[in-house]
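Anyone have tokens for TIR domain-containing protein? Sequence:
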Amino acid sequence: MASSSTSSNQKSFKYHVFLSFRGEDTRKTFVDHLYVSLKQLGIHTFRDNEELEKGKRIDELFKAIEESRFFIIVFSQNYASSSWCLKELAKIMECQDENEQIAYPLFYDVEPSDIRKRSGPVEEAIAKHKTNEQITKWEKALESAGNLVGWNLKNIADGHEAEAIKKIVKEISLKLRSIHLSNDENVIGMDHRMQDLESSLGIGLNDKARMIGIKGMGGIGKTTLARAIFDNLASHFEGSFFADDVREISKKEGLRSLQERILSGVLKDENMRVGSVHDGKELMRMRLPYKKVLLVLDDVDDEEQLEALAGDWFKDGSRIIITTRDEKVLLAHGVDTKWIHDVGFLSDEEAMSLFSRYAFKRYIPDEGYEKLSSEVVRYAAGLPLTIKVLGSHLRGENELVWRGALKRLETIPSRKIIEVLEISYNSLEDDHKEMFLDVACFLRGFPKEYVVRVLDSCGFSAAYGLRILEQKCLITILNDDSSRLGMHDRLVELGQNIVRRSHPDDPNKHSRLWIREEIEKLFTDDSGTEASTCIGLELVWKELSPEIIIKSLGNMKKLRYLCLGGKHDDCFPRDWKFDKTKQYLPNSLQFLYWNVYPGLSLPPTFRANHLVGLELVGSKIVQLWESGERKVLKKLRFLDLRDSKLRTLDLEMTPNLERLILIGCHDLTEIHAPIGCLDRLALVNLIGCSWSVSFSLLKKLESLVLLSIPELSVAAKCLEEFPRDTTNNLPMLRFAFHYCKEQTLSTGIDSKAVVLDLQPCTKLESVSGSICGLQHLRRLRFYGFIPELPNDLDLLKCLEQLNLVSTHIKFLPDSVCMLKHLKSLTLKDCWYLEELPENLGWLKNLEELSLLSASIRCLPDSICMLIHLKSLILESCVLLEKLPEDIGQLECLEVLNLTKCVSLGDIPNSICNLKCLRFLFLGFCSKLEKLPKDFGNLGLLEGLDISLTRISRLPHSMSSMTGVVIFGSTSLLEGKMT
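Reply: yep, here.
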């Protein structure tokens, strides 16, 4: 049985504060105001005339003391004259010494020294008790209390009681919140998230009121983060209110109700009434400009809610925090994008701590449950909602129940999790719901460009729709070379559950099919129906023949998307042909991807009048239609026949074609393309095609955007025949000369080109200076054995990226340092490169400098002038002996990679000044023995790799660093710090 033991016996207190005071002196004045102020902030406070009836026994008073977290002792001149007060004081000091309770003296009209020494008015007051047997105990209590840190009223706000009370209440509130945050399981992982928001919050500034957005998918912890911020900062404001669940309350009770709640909470007036939403706005406009407020609007889903609750009526210095699943709501209301923050997923360590708090009531799993807990955390994929739901569900259960629950999740997701996530899905328009389901079932992980092509083919406004899904935090666009689409595992689960749940055991009624066993059974039984609109499957030919597949497809009259992947294994008949009378592919198809398509042409019964995208990669197709049949594909926009056996292609039948990919079509001998039939063609890739075919097609194009061919001479010849007025209007002309055969790059590139990419042009040996005439060039990439670059590269005034791979250059020309717009400089496997220009620091806009496997021994000191540099990669620079001493001046640096710099002896102390550094890679730096002692100053550090170095101890300053993943350090686990 899983244990429910706790790792800490944190005492639970009934009261936040116990007030001890002499009633005749302060009950109706100072203490009364203090009590009301504490109560208004929700601080549960005990005072005897409120909680104890006259005549109650002293032991009940003592019980209240024992059940209070803090004590405020209001010392007045007559305090010590009351034996009742002295009994309270003695008990308070006893609790202060033995428990977690803390006492704060407040010296109302006496000096601390009067209490400590029992002098002045206190001496006269205590004298009344000289015969009491407890006098010694009371005097000791007075002395101890007088030595405590507290407040001397006359020294606070020049003795103004109202201001003094504000300060005291604020301090107590902060202490309570600090205790709450340190013990609240919900704030695990919130520390660095709150730090990310610090600059946006600007606490203490009296600038214009700010609206700060916190966005993220359902269940990711937006409310928890907002609550933690609110609890931590509310005392800094004159008024505060946390408006829970705005979406649900506005739906059930209306916006007028929310306006009343906010006004009542901020103004501390429970009698606020609003006649209409318009009246509420006017009342807010009239009352709120005079109070600096902290307002949280949680779970907003409509701009109308913000218009009614967060207009332009807040006082300077106010902060309005808005949590939402929909970024569009924030943007529509004018929230500055720099103050909109994404809530990230929990790390594995944070997730394990949170799960353990829910499942075991401690921060690590119980013995024997470590592996099962890891499976739950892996399933949750960093989503707090999933962790909390499963932790609560599994608490106290035995191992068998755990295993059963995990197995069930493989096919049946948690209803509670699905219900929370589905709120975002339900808010979508119908076409965006369909797009969401397509991504969840088929398109997650694919490049955005491909997904747009597929969805556009299926009749959706893909670019707009994906932006909506992204704004609603249902997808992410990954920051990689191909901008792949990301979707959280639980959202994928949601989408697939929506498709299957109405008929879980009847795949024939599902709109989308992606499960191999179900599709294979459907094909084998020839039981396809009109319910199916999309199919995605990785084929294994030995298990499912093409005849069986294509026979069933004809029954799916509403199929719009068909994606059949797989590898070629030559198991299908080489002379496979169609029955000319049988329907094979449904005419409803809009996008068809079939890897290793087995036919020599498309089926003759396939009219394809709805087909927009056709991709038959690695296929046996030799022509689109058998026997030269001429079917016009009016809607076809995307055609990809790469690595196919294509021999002839009639493009007159595709008048609206925009994208043509014929990579590796070595057998292609003829492209029929009359002038004027390719007005829309913008992207052509002919790598692997013969030069004669390439030339015959390219000289007819008038709307070229991307040109990718194997020979520069062909490009030159084609471009000479381009109409000049057309070429001058090509705003984004790109040239990608893959596998070019020339040894010298000199002419043939249009002056309007913005991208020149030569990879891998292994025969390229020199580059003439004429390349520097490409004044619109933004990206330049070389892959070849060229020994040097032209000296006048500074003429490339628009160049933003320079990428050199496997060149033989020994140095960069000084002219490189004059490229004012250069943001990225990458030199990979340039083994002959021995030095960088001394004036490298002139590249003021450089954000990325990457040197992999270069032969440099040191970096120029001017590198420290690159104030915008975010990434410095020096991996495998095995001769690099030292870094510049002033490297700490790179104030924007986030990534420093020194992996395999085996000659590097030490790290400069100034590295501790890199306040933005997030990742430091020192793996395989075999000479490194220590890190700088102030290493703990790197407050944003997330990852540190010291594998296979000589570092055996970490600086003591790192002991306070949380959330840093350290690779290759067993010493940290053993607590060894210098």
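The domain at 834-978 is CATH 3.80.10.10 (Leucine-rich repeat, LRR (right-handed beta-alpha superhelix)).
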